Amino acid sequence: MKYVSEYRDKESALKYTGLIRKLVKGEWSIMEVCGGQTHSIVKYGIDQLLPDSVTLIHGPGCPVCVTPIELIDQAAEIAGLANVIFCSFGDMLRVPGSFTDLLGVKASGGDVRMVYSPVDAVRIAAANPDKEIVFFAVGFETTAPVTASAVLQAEHLGLSNFSLLVSHVLVPPAIKAVLSGEDCAVQGFLAAGHVCSVMGYTEYEPIAEKYGVPIVVTGFEPLDILEGIHMCLKQLEEGRADVENQYLRAVSRDGNRAAIEIMRSVFQITDRKWRGIGEIPDSGFSLRERFAGFDAGKRFEVSSHEVDEPEICISGEVLRGNKKPFECAAFGKECTPERPLGAPMVSSEGACAAYYRYRLARER
Amino acid sequence: MCLGVPGRIEEISENDDPLFVTGKVNFGGVLREVILAGIKDAKIGDWVIVHAGFALNKLKEDEASEVFEYLRQMSEFGQDELGDSEGISDRSE
């Protein structure tokens, strides 16, 4: 067992698509919430293997894409300060703010570093006591435990030169926001496997019940996604709306209590603004009072201002699942991964970038 | 962003505080230091799913072939017996 290659078996994938074709009678729209799944779906062409009556709608599950433009601006402002080493996951570096991106700050002399883990930023802080180290903490419930772990380590080491610009967001409130939308076409969901590996899936049970939508916790490999789609379609055809778990090898109903505890000890739930969607109540994490000293938003004086997105960019519609990247006039023209107008074209998990990389290349 | 990579625990560092337990995890031949604070009773040889240097959860070996088992069962039941797939429809734990 390697837990990867076996789940990419072509023959089994074709069998799954055959089963799906036989199963489907109605017309159905399913949203995969997580950008990692969007990436797999477009990369392996899973959506093109499905019958025409099944539409996959790409959801808002890319934390890079939904981080508000105002926060990108704050990050750029802090990163440009003398004496600051600004650390971030690589995906965030090229997300356009209203005046620059973090790579632009680096090009103008700012010390901006890409890290694999927030814990790397803690190490940098320990090694550079005369500098201020700031970590741009974005991510869903998958990432919150490691961010929390970094904060606990920094506290344990007594580091006073480490802080975080926190923009952590949560999946269930986003699903509710999508379902509450006036023009919501989504009839079923594939829930994000790794988020649920931490959190379990009890939070999704009242959502499935209230809105009458099936939710299937799904993994990321092609066969996982095909099985998740089959399970979701089976529920739709049978008129059921339950929470089911496809990703059994990594997810249990109650999740990982030890990881949840680490996360909850550091973070509390707060309202958050989502780029392209707007404010969603109780949809994110902020640092608890005990850790307020690690809050970069309080440590540095940053300006707060409202910013408008470029008019031509429809990333909000794409993030809400109302439009596909191809429907944007700027797609592949004014907006490319090299010169992105909106965040979904930047992140490797953004729907626009996935379409640009795999779909456009295939059609050329 | 929510990428999780499966790997096998090869070493566990001793630490009195469970919050700071780390280990070496083998990802197809590449060893990396990983925080194991979220893994209760971590043992050498356990498979874990790792995100940004943090082990999110153990991988359950007994569920590893489930994708193929479901495929086999669904193929056997066929499209005519949908809704009659005993033991498959209730997959919550």
Question: What would you note in describing this structure?
Answer:
The complex is a heterodimer of chains A (364) and B (93). Chain A is α/β, with parallel strands linked by helices and 364 residues long. Chain A has two domains: 27-301 and 309-314, HypD, alpha/beta domain 2 (Rossmann fold, 3-Layer(aba) Sandwich); 315-363, no CATH class. Helix content of chain A is 40%, strand content 19%. Chain A has 16 helices and eleven strands. In chain A, the strands form two sheets. Chain A has a six-stranded mixed sheet with strand order 4-3-5-6-11-10, sandwiched between helices. Chain A has a five-stranded parallel sheet with strand order 2-1-7-8-9, with helices on both faces. In chain A, helix 6 links the parallel strand 3 (84-88) and strand 4 (111-114). The longest helix of chain A has 17 residues, at 222-238. Chain A starts with 9 loop residues before the first helix and ends with a helix. Chain B starts with a strand and ends in a 16-residue tail after the last helix. Chain B has 93 residues and is an alpha+beta fold. Chain B has one helix and five strands. In chain B, a hairpin with a 2-residue loop joins strand 4 (47-51) and strand 5. Chain B has a five-stranded antiparallel sheet, with no helix packed on it. Chain B has a domain at 5-63: SH3 type barrels, CATH 2.30.30. Chain B has one helix at 66-77; strands at 5-12, 22-27, 30-35, 47-51, 54-58. Chains A and B meet through helix 1, helix 7, helix 8, helix 10 and helix 12 of A and strand 4, strand 5 and helix 1 of B.
Fill in the keyword field for this structure.
heterodimer; A: 364 residues; Rossmann fold; 2 domains; six-stranded mixed beta sheet; 11 strands; 19% strand; B: 93 residues; alpha+beta; SH3 type barrels; 5 strands; disordered C terminus
Strand order of the largest sheet of chain B: 3-2-1-4-5
Low-confidence stretches of chain B: 79-93
Q: What's the β-strand tally of chain A?
A: 11
Give, in order, the helices and strands of chain B: EEEEEH
Total strands of chain B: 5
Question: Biggest sheet of chain A, open or closed, and with what strands and sense?
Answer: 6 strands, mixed
Q: Mean of the pLDDT scores of chain A?
A: 93
Based on Cα principal axes, name the global outline of chain B.
Answer: elongated
CATH third-tier fold name of the domain at 5-63 in chain B: SH3 type barrels
Number of domain units of chain A = 2
Radius of gyration of chain B over alpha carbons?
18 Å
Low-pLDDT regions of chain A: none
Determine the mean pLDDT of chain B: 84
- Broad structural category of chain B: alpha+beta
Biggest interface: chains and residue counts?
A-B, 70 and 42 residues
The number of helices of chain A is 16
Gross morphology of chain A is: globular
Helix content estimate of chain B:
10-25%
